[in-house]
């Protein structure tokens, strides 16, 4: 079992926004939690693995320490100065990176034993097609790891935080909230909780650019479950992680909030799944 080094995760989390290389290191150490989740679901990282949206490439580097072959793809070459460099430094010869679209994966059917989709699906223009592509390249008895967050939650909204924690996206809708943060990043950065190096709204505003909304799939719990089923997949394991506020409630009430279709999309901060082909045996 991979040890989860909370001290290393915290240390690299504090530095992750300095560069893609630093963010990849953070992902490398944080990946131990993904591997632990897979192990709880009875999944061993082995064989051929695809990270279908690898970003800087830290997570596939970690998976390469367990599997025989790992491929990380992303439509933007964020991995060139990060994952590629780290793989070279650590002598990982079973890891490859390539620019590719997750909605049109350049691999034959059944090419991978494990497909990883870590915080990717919310940034995909056609989530059902993306899920079908992940299913297509999966072996008959393979598994998919999927994580994301409902777009109505603070974590899933992918918006800055105000120093006064007002949920603008819930009060006024996403479009109005996004435009408000664009304005604040240009004219009132003192209202925002994150420093410039952690806030793409501010960083782009300082360069005279405007942050575009890259949250393309509005994830909801029930909607995602339906998309999973429509892609010919079944849920092997599902963990819905609620916010710290909900965790402080009595256990029965916290479970009720987590499972309530009326409010769960607001109070679930992360969703993790292990998926398999619907036709495959358990």
Can you offer a commentary on this structure?
The protein is an alpha/beta fold. It folds into 2 domains: about 5-150 and about 215-275, Vaccinia Virus protein VP39 (Rossmann fold, 3-Layer(aba) Sandwich), CATH 3.40.50.150; about 160-205, no CATH class. Helices cover about 40% and strands about 20% of the residues. The chain has 13 helices and 7 strands. It has a 7-stranded mixed sheet with strand order 3-2-1-4-5-7-6, sandwiched between helices. Helix 3 links the parallel strand 1 and strand 2 (about 70-75). Helix 1 runs antiparallel to helix 2 and helix 8 (about 175-185) packs across helix 9 (about 200-205). The mean pLDDT is about 95.
Strand content: 15-25%
In the CATH scheme, the class of the largest domain would be: Alpha Beta
At CATH level 3, the topology of the largest domain is Rossmann fold
- Rounded average pLDDT: 95
CATH architectural arrangement of the largest domain: 3-Layer(aba) Sandwich
- Sequence stretches where pLDDT stays below 50 over 5 or more residues: none
Instruction: Determine the structural class based on helices, strands and strand pairing.
Output: alpha/beta
Query: What shape does the CA trace take?
Result: globular
Distance between the termini: 23 Å
Number of domains: 2
Largest sheet: 7 strands, mixed
Give the number of helices: 13
Which features would summarize this protein structure in a list?
globular, Rossmann fold, seven-stranded mixed beta sheet, 282 residues, 13 helices, alpha/beta
